[in-house]
Amino acid sequence: MLAWYSVSTFSGQELKVKQLLEAMIEREQAQDLFGRIEVPHVNEEHILTKKGKRVVKIERRNLMPAYVFIQMELNDRTRHLVQNIQGVTKFVTIGSKILPIPDEEMVTILPRDNGALGDLPPLEAPPVKEGDSIRIKEGPFNDYTGVVEEIMKERGKLKAMVVIFGRSIPVELNFSEVEVL
User: Fold this and answer.
1) Whether the Cβ atoms of residue 114 and residue 122 lie closer than 8 Å to each other
2) Which of 16, 128, 134, 178 is the most buried (most CB within 10 A)?
3) φ and ψ at residue 42, rounded to 5 degrees
């Protein structure tokens, strides 16, 4: 029976370990012993200005650096195959036992169909609407004021125009970073 297990890896090697595991499963024809392999992450969108042009950069950020989650049937063969993958340091154990991670715990870190993580409830919009004046209360733009341009409820963010050095700049902020004036 397939269950979830976690292995620790060298930091920054999570995706490489996932790729090597998938290749090993194919090579050893062990597809029936393995299920999904997950590296919990979020894609963060950063808006930059280069040479006067707006550039959107999407950056992958691991939510649990140095860990890979594997759905597998644990036996001597599969344990040996996983432990011999380059970049895997060890199985995560309790004491000296490799124990499965309960499905209820995995639900909170696995991506859902829409790309969001786990069974977290949707974020509620703050009591702010387009056109409201706001003050930024944390982060690099702390104490700046702006006007809300757009509310992205599904992402838990809003876009505001903030005057910096005499120029109006669009800034994307989390709901928790602002307060209504």
Assistant:
1) no
2) 178
3) -130, 150
Distance CA 85, CA 75 (A): 16
Separation of alpha carbons 6 and 88, rounded Å: 10
Encoded tokens for 140: 């690099």
Give the C-alpha separation, 22 to 16, whole Å.
10
* Token couple for 141: 């733009």
pTM (global) more than 0.70: no
Structure tokens at 44: 């963060």
What does the alpha-carbon distance between residue 43 and residue 102 come to, in Å, rounded to a whole number? 26
Categorize the per-residue pLDDT at 106 as very low, low, confident or very high, splitting at 50, 70 and 90: confident
The number of CA neighbours under 13 Å toward the Cβ of 159 is 9
Distance CA 38, CA 111 (A): 9
